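FIELD: query
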Amino acid sequence: MKEHDVQRDYQLIARYFLKHPEAPVDQAARDLASAIGSISTAERRIRKMKADAILSERTMVIDWEALGYPFQYRIDVHIDQEALHEPEFYGAPPGEKPHEAVDNWRRLVQYIMKDLIPFVEKIPAAKTISKKKFSKDDVILENVTILLGQQADLTVTVRAQSQDAVMTFVVDGLRAMRGVKTTSASHEAWSYTQGEL
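FIELD: result
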């Protein structure tokens, strides 16, 4: 079989699992058999995609509100490129000296995902914008993405227990970073993937 036929089959399988993420392999193979050629070929392709880490089974949170995280925000970030090249703190918040310098976009993303919440947790309540003590349990960072060709350089997707938690994370965390020039936060009111499942 030609490689472009295999790729086409992989694309069909990927589209199928985007619409039916919890479908078992045997059901997916039956549903895709006519488009791919046979049940056995479809099943073999699905298993190969999983073995090659093209597909993976994952658990998805459906009801964030039931977990205590009713708020979802998208925070667009404009990077201060010059600050990423200025020793000693580079793009990290002043006073923070991460073991690896925050001196490029990927390191900035990694710092936000792994180190920013512990940084904000260390701030006394009296010094936060909300005047409340911030805890790592107040927010869940879902993702930080580098954007190209957009008005923002990065976008941060965050789930929060309260709007105060988001405000503290943004003002006392993100905006305190030398590598962050500006931010713009949007409250995501409804999502198709969350609302239709």
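FIELD: remark
The chain has a mean pLDDT of 92.
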